[in-house]
Amino acid sequence: MTIIKQDDLINSIADALQFISYYHPKDYIQALAKAYEQEQSAPAKDAIAQILYNSRLCAQGHRPICQDTGIAVIFIEVGMAVQWDCTMSLEDMINEGVRQAYNYPDNILRASVLADPAGARINTKDNTPAIIHTKLVSGHTVKVKLAAKGGGSENKAKFAALNPSSDLVAWVLKSVADMGAGWCPPGILGVGIGGTPEKAMLLAKESLLAPVTMQDLIREAEQGKRLTRPEELRLELYEKINALGIGAQGLGGLTTVVDVKVLDYPTHAASLPVAIIPNCAATRHTHFTLDGSGPAVLTPPALTDWPDITWQPSAQARHINLDNLSKEDIQHWQPGEQLLLSGKLLTGRDAAHKRIIDTLARGEALPDGVDFTNRFIYYVGPVDAVRDEPVGPAGPTTATRMDKYTETMLAQTGLIGMVGKAERGAIAIDAIKKHKAVYLTAVGGAAYLISKAIEKATIIAYAELGMEAIYEFEIKDMPVTVGVDVHGESVHQSGPKKWAKIIPQ
After folding, report:
1. What pLDDT shows up at residue 304?
2. Cβ partners under 8 Å of residue 448, min gap 6
3. pTM for this model (two decimals)
4. DSSP code of 118?
5. What is the mean pLDDT of residues 108-119?
6. Quick one: 277 exposed, middle or buried, by C-beta within 10 A (0-12, 13-18, 19+)?
7. Most buried among 80, 89, 397, 479, by the most CB within 10 A?
8. What is the C-alpha radius of gyration for the chain, rounded to an integer number of angstroms?
9. Would you say the CATH fold of 318-497 matches that of 151-281?
10. CA distances (Å), 118 to each of 121, 257, 400, in order?
11. DSSP characters for 358-396?
12. How far apart are CA 235 and CA 254, in angstroms?
């Protein structure tokens, strides 16, 4: 009989979450490197280069790949012949591992989990509780599959109870097109088919933890291997999703997904439940097994596993001094143009925006130091700094969540521009066009690289909101792209439309 000690599970969970915070899976890196080699869209190729370079920096510096260090998702299979040497419940042991991982002082991970989600939304401070899925199975071991899923990709999950005669592929393609780029492609799409609604969602989530094997599957198909129906669907969806032309960061290009995973399960005769969940460019997961010999030992990848790709800003990038910028200066910026921002930049995301809007609605003044006149706001919730860092990894959050605030911000605060990731919705674009403002995009999945451009970070308002406080960043050559110009032209509309026409040719 195998005896598993309490601390062995706790320490293994903690070590694994730290491990995946700064090490991409080797198979994803290799798939992304192949996508980089094949990419013909210049903006998409630049975005992939930033993601790959960021990944290497994180592996070297042991700092998070993305500022959104995710919610912990645990699939655990407990052998029925296992005996536990513990005083805590299984869930409590797992959550203690999460707590230790996210509060580890040498690599603090951002706490994003909020209790009372439909009410006060209070941060739990340690990213607990985890999302835990437990199975009792035959055997003498405990097997754990573990992931950290960011909100940007989780928010793009879709489910439908289709009719059995419905076109499943057509539904997936439409859903992916509707998802936009807030999930930070290029990544992996998980598809769950069958069972019941909750089972389909669970299948989609679990499928994302499998290795990246699309190129192997393509070779097998070319060699005449007889494929299962899930394998056929993987190939069909991979080809057709990439043909949409969405591309890296939604800028238009050849690769939107590097793999598609499909898991199915028997279902009711009247039903065809289907779920999709994407994995973003910050793909983070690992597996380990406990057999009673001690905590899991995870083997770090070698730096030679990363492609020899570095990133430098384009020589044509326009240098912008934010400290003496006026509304007239931004009128000639072109969609897709690369900029390097220097100077002082205010930050703010969901909670800060709500407070600002509520304050303005009451006719009250904003907090001292919060003056947006002729300034830009960066949608970000950074990781806490360690050692001598001004701030931890500080990549952009999904801009569409701030769309409903954009008209008021531009009309009442003097704001002239915003920085975030992915596309803006119609109401935000209308406001940007109306007020002759601009929206700039930074690369999601390049958070540590972006933080290298931040020389100083000071909280100036709403400190109690933690990572959602308003900061003032002093930056030097922060790389961004003009996403929406003063005329309302969006690269997230024009880019994919262009490449959707090119790819079939």
Report:
1. 93
2. 54, 57, 58, 61, 63, 64, 65, 393
3. 0.96
4. T
5. 96
6. buried
7. 397
8. 23
9. no
10. 7, 33, 20
11. HHHHTTPPPPTT---TT-EEE---PPPP-TT-SSS--PP
12. 16
> Among 301-310, 332-341, 387-396, which is the least confidently predicted range?
301-310
At residue 481, the 3 state secondary structure works out as strand
The predicted structure's pLDDT at residue 3: 97
CATH number of 151-281: 3.30.1330
Does 3.20.130.10 match the CATH number of domain 318-497?
yes
Stated length of the chain: 505
Burial of 178 (0-12, 13-18, 19+ CB in 10 A): exposed
Label residue 449 by pLDDT band (50, 70, 90). very high
Among residues 423, 367, 417, 430, the alpha carbon closest in space to that of 400 is found at: 423
Helix (H/G/I), strand (E/B), else coil: 351 = helix
What is residue 505's predicted lDDT score, i.e. its pLDDT?
84
Distance of CA 42 to the CA centre of its chain: 22
Q: How far apart are CA 49 and CA 421, in angstroms?
A: 16
Q: How far is CA 213 from CA 207, 222, 255, 276, in A?
A: 12, 14, 15, 18
User: What distance in Å separates the CA atoms of residue 79 and residue 85, rounded to the nearest whole number?
Assistant: 14
Name residue, tokens 């996508």.
35
pLDDT (tens digit per residue) in 250-268: 999 999 999 999 999 999 9
209 pLDDT tier (thresholds 50, 70, 90)? very high
CB distance 241 to 171 below 8 Å: no
Helix, strand and coil percent figures for the chain, each rounded to 5:
35, 25, 40
With beta carbons less than 8 A apart as the criterion, state whether 156 and 278 touch. Answer: yes
pLDDT 10s digits, 94-107: 999 999 999 999 99
Per DSSP bridges, beta strands 131-137 and 71-79 are parallel
Question: In a 10 Å sphere around its CB, with 0-12 CB exposed, 13-18 middle and 19+ buried, how is residue 172 labelled?
Answer: buried
Rounded (5°) CA angle 481-29-317: 20
216-236 in b/e burial notation, b at 16+ Cβ within 10 A?
ebeeeeeeeeeeeeebebbbb
Confidence of residue 1 (pLDDT cuts 50, 70, 90): confident
Which sequence spans correspond to the domains of the chain?
1-150+286-292+301-311, 151-281, 318-497
Query: Cβ neighbours of residue 244 under 8 Å, at least 6 residues apart?
Result: 173, 176, 177, 256, 496, 500
- Asked if residue 53 lies in contact with residue 47, where contact means CB atoms within 8 angstroms, the answer is no
